[in-house]
Amino acid sequence: MGLVTCVIGGGGFVGQAVVQDLLQNTDRNVVIVGRKPLESQLPARVRYVQNPSGASDELLSTILSEVDEVIDLAYATVPQTSFQNPVNDILVNLPEAVRLFEHATQWSLRKFVWVSSGGTVYGHAQQVPLTEDHPTNPVSPYGITKLAIEKYAHLYYCSTQLPIVCVRPSNAYGEGQRVYAGQGFIGTAIASLLDHRTLDLFGDEGTIRDYLHIKDMARGIVAALTDGHAGQVYNIGSGIGHSNRQVLEILEPLARTIGVPLRLHVHPERPFDVKVNVLDSTKLYAHTNWKPLLSFERGIRQTWEWYVANYKGRYSADGSRP
Question: In this model, does residue 315 exceed pLDDT 50?
Answer without folding.
Answer: no
